[in-house]
Amino acid sequence: MNAILIASILIGISLGFPLFWKFKPEINREEVLCRTGLRVLNEEEKSLMALKLTRAGIDSSPEYYYGMKVVLTAGYLILLAVVSILFSLSFVVFLVLLCGAAITWLYPNIKINNAITTRQSEIRRKLDDFATYLSTALNSMPSVESALYEAGNATGGVFREEIETVMMENASGKSLPDALNDWAYRVDVTEISTLVSAINQIHQKGAPASEKMKEYADQIRMTKRYELMEASGKLSVQLIFVVAFFMLIPLLITIGYPSVVSLLNAL
Q: How many CB atoms lie within 10 A of CB 72?
């Protein structure tokens, strides 16, 4: 009976879907998702999500993002209800599948956090290159703004995007120190905050530009070298347990097994 019902529903969907698709109403998906997100989003969550999306490099509004989460979760629950009715799922199986709704709701947040971590790792990895390029550009460029632009283009990736944002904010009327401070707050990387402080000193107080950037680049390289040494030390400790488990234990078993067998036979 269930098989006949399922087959009838699938046939009806297959026959009706082309007709529905031909005469489907025009829907502004972005507007619908934004309005849906506004119903579940307060101002505090909106500000926090906007900052997270910016740090992740995602060009999307918080309302659209939350609306998408609501639609995906609601779609999953509707699909689960239909499947439960059609296949007569047991209560235990239904509860297990219901956990997927929480995963559907939380997965976009996990994806954003991973994007933020990846972006911050790229910033730390290329920071010494950016400082070196900036030091070279400050020797030949007439202004800090031009040097920043050239260094950002030479470094590429996240630095190009962020420096272009800084230049756009500066061109729209915001002072360079404020735009740089916004950059440091936006990426949330300690090393960038230190770099911004050094650039602001160069811009405001006329500190020795090239030498200061060279010192900063050397400091970043030294820090990375210490971090690599620390990581290699931790890896050596972890390898000890791997060697003990995959080599020492099988060796002891190989050596001890004949002795145990002989002892048991003697008894």
A: 15
Q: pTM of the full predicted structure?
A: 0.69
Q: State the Cα–Cα distance between residues 155 and 178, nearest whole angstrom.
A: 22
Which residues 6+ apart lie within 8 Å of 12 measured at CB? Answer: none
pLDDT confidence band for 65 (50 / 70 / 90): confident
The ranges assigned to domains in the chain are 27-118, 120-223
CATH number assigned to the domain with residue range 120-223, chosen from the 4 options 1.20.144, 1.20.81, 3.30.70, 1.20.1070: 1.20.81
Q: pLDDT digit string (tens) for 181-236?
A: 999 998 988 888 888 888 887 777 665 666 666 677 677 777 767 666 766 767 67
